[in-house]
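Thread: Modeling a multi-component assembly for a lab meeting

Hi all, long-time lurker, first post. My supervisor asked me to bring a structural picture of a complex we are working on to next week's group meeting, and I have zero experience with this. I have the sequence lines for every component (686 residues in total). Could someone generate the structure of the whole assembly? Inputs are pasted exactly as I received them:
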Amino acid sequence: MKGILGLAFEGLLRKKGRNLLTMSGVLIGVFALTMIVSLGEGLAHAVTDTVSGQDNLRQVGVTGGFGIELSNDPFSVTIEGEMDDARRDRLRRAAVNRRQIRQWYGRRVTQINEETMGELAKIPHVDSISPVIVERYELKVGEFESDPKLSFGVDVANHRYDNRIIAGSYFSAPDAGEVILHEYLLYKWGLIDSDDYSKVLGKKITLKSIVNEQDAQPAAPPQMQGFLESLTPEEREAAMKLLPKLMGMAQQTRKPVEREFTVVGVMRETQPGDALNIIEDGQSVQADVFLPLETARAMFEESAVNAQLGYPAAVVIVDSPDNAPEVEQAVRDKGFTGFSVASVLKQVETMLTVITVIIAFLTGIALIVSTLGIVNTMITSVLERTREIGIFKAVGATNGQVMAVFLTESAMIGLIGGLMGLGIAVLAMIPGDAIGGAMIAERAAIPYQGNVFVLPLWLAIAGPALGAVTAVLAAIIPARRAARIDPVKALRHD
Amino acid sequence: MALLGRSGSGKSTLLNLLGGLDRPSRGSIRVSGTELAEMSKRELSLYRRTTVGFIFQSFNLVTSLRAWENVSLPLIFQGIGRFERKKRAHELLERVGLDKRAGHMPSEMSGGEQQRVAIARALVNDPKLMLCDEPTGNLDTATSDQIMQILAESHRGGTTLVMVTHDPELAEKHTQRTLRMADGQFVAEVPA
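Re: Modeling a multi-component assembly
Sure thing. I ran the full set together rather than chain by chain. Output:
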C-alpha cells in the first residue's frame, strides 16, 4: 500500500499544473463550506455565550396574562353533546373567536402579587421568585425638579451592579435610604465633566410617584362619596367596622408616594464584558435611578393603583436550565405569560442550524462541480498512462491494485485541495472576524466580544475528508476503466 | 529457447499466453504443471507476479520513474517495503552492470542500458520463466550481444528463457532450442 501511495504521488507530480487546477475546485468547495459552517457555528456561539452566563438559562420571566394560554386551534376546544359535525365545528370556532375577543379587550386575568407569586413559587423545580420593579418617579434635588425618570429595583446581593459603580459607592444595605444614579442622567443634568460627580454624591434626592388626573380621583363613585361626607365621625367609625372592605375602597384616594434618599453612587452604562441577564437587563436598560429592591418594592406597594394591578413582571429562578421549559409551560398553564431564555435560545439555535445546513448544501454544489473536474482529469490521466498501466499489469499488479493507484491519486487531489481550502478559510477568518465583529457591534444591542467564525474540530477534519471522499467517488469510473485496460493492447509497441 | 517466424505467425500471442497476459479462447496452457486457461484474472496477476518476467522490444520502462524504481516496480505490487525494494533493485542493477546508474531516468540512458534495466526488473522477482519479445530488436549488434550474455547468465541461474526473434543467427548462437512458427503452428525445430 505504501508503494502504491508513492506511485500515486508520483503520478500527481507529473502533471502539476493540471492537478493544481483540479485541486482548486475542491479547494473552493471546502473553503466555502468551512466558512459557512464556521459562521453558523460562530453565530450560535455568539447567541449561546451571550446568554448562558448569569443563570440566564435558569430564568423564566413572568408577566400578567390574559387568562389561560389560549389556543386558536378550533380542535383544541371540546364541544360536548350529541350533534352533527358541522354544528360542532361552528361551536368550536365560536369558542375560539370568543377567546380572541377576550384577549382583544386586554383585560389581565392574572396579576403578579404576593399571593400569585406564592403560587408560582410552588411550581416544581422553582427555586425562587422575585418581582421586577420598574417605576417612574419625579426626582427632586433641592429646588430642582426633573421629569419623571425610570427607576429600577436592584437586588443588593447581586454584584452585577456593584461592578458598574464609577463614583461613590454601592448600596451599604437594602434599607439604608440610598439611591444610585445613572451616569447618563447626570450628564443630562449638566454634570458634563467626570469630576462633577462629587457634587451629587451625598446629596438628598426625593422620589415622587406620578399621579395622573384619573388616578387622583377618589376610588369610590360620587354618590358614595356624598354619602360618606354626610356621615358623622361616629357613624363613619361604625361603618368602618361593619363594612371594612367597602369603606376602605371608598376612602382610598390616590396620593403620590414620596420618599427622600441619599445619592451614594454613580452607575455606568453596560459595556462589553459585563455579565448579561437577558430578562432583568431588558427591564433595566432605560433606568436612570437604581434603588435597592426591597425599598423599590415598599414604595411600589404604597401606591394604591399598584397594589391593585400587581407587579409588572417577575423573574422565576429554576433549579436547572433543563427544567426551564417545563416551568415556563407551568407558568403559562397558570394563566401568566411566560418567557424563558432557554426556550428562545433553543428556537434560535434550531433556526441557525437549519439555515446553515441549507446554505452548506448550496455550497456543496461547488464540490459537485469540482467532482466533474476530477472525473475529467482522471480520465485524461488514465488515457495518457495506458502503457504504464500495461506495465503495471505485466509485472503482476492486480486490477484492484491498478484501481488503487488511481483512487489514491484522486484522493490526494481531494485531500490536498481540501487542506488548502481549510488553510485559506482559517486565514480568511481573521479579517472575517474583524468585519463580522464590527457589523455585529454596529447592529446588536448586546455587546459581543467573541469570534464570529468558530471552526470546530470536527469541521477541520470533515472538510478535507469530504474533499478526499468526493474525489475518490469521482475517480471510481476512471479507475475502473484503468483496471480494465487489456495489457496486451497496452504494451503492443507502435 | 527461441521462437522464429514471420510477423503474424503467432509468436507474440504464444508469449502473451505463456505469460498470463492473455487467455486462450479455447484449449489449455500448462506451465510447470499449472493450468493457466482456467485461472481467474486475479490468479493470472499473481502468476505473473511470482513466476514470470517480461522483456519487450521497446523496453517498456515507466519513463517518470528512476532506474531503480523501475526495477523495484514488481515488488511494490507484492507489498514489499521501500527499504527492501531499494536494496533488491540495487542488487539486480549490479548484476546487469548498472548499479551506478540507479538514480537516472530512462530518458537519460541508452537503449542498451534501458534494456538492462528492463532485464533487472524482469529478474527482480526470481521468475521461473523469462519471456523476451524481440529483446534486441531495437539495439545494435554489439549491444545485442551484451544483452544476450546477460540473459544467458540468468538462464544458467535456472530460469527458463523463451525468446521471440526475427534473427536466426542470434537464435542459433545463444539458445539451446529454436522452433519455427507459421500461422500459429510450430512448423520445425531448427537444428533438426
